[in-house]
Amino acid sequence: AQQPGTPLSDQEYHEFFKFLQINIQASTACHLRELYGCKNSLVQRLDEYENHGVIPPGPICSELPGNPFFHNFCTFSLYRCIMKKYFLKV
């Protein structure tokens, strides 16, 4: 079992994004985030699932070279949506 607040493993990410692999579905999930924000219960459930039940409070460091810092998980997730880098990990 993973520690709460840690990112998913590669296999868990595969399962997490299985339903989002079609570009339209991924865009829809991102659109929900953009429309309703990170306080929306559905968006929060997705964020919790992605992080083993706990949304990391921040700051968030990612695998991005050059600009790896985000103030919180919401900012990080919005960046992934905008850049269409759905599998970018924290």
From TrEMBL:
It is found in: Cytoplasmic vesicle, Secretory vesicle, Acrosome. GO terms for cellular component: acrosomal vesicle; nucleus. Keywords: Cytoplasmic vesicle, Phosphoprotein, Signal. Pfam families: PBP_sp32. Signal peptide: none annotated. InterPro entries: Proacrosin-bd (IPR009865). Acrosomal protein that maintains proacrosin (pro-ACR) as an enzymatically inactive zymogen in the acrosome. Involved also in the acrosome formation. This is Acrosin-binding protein.
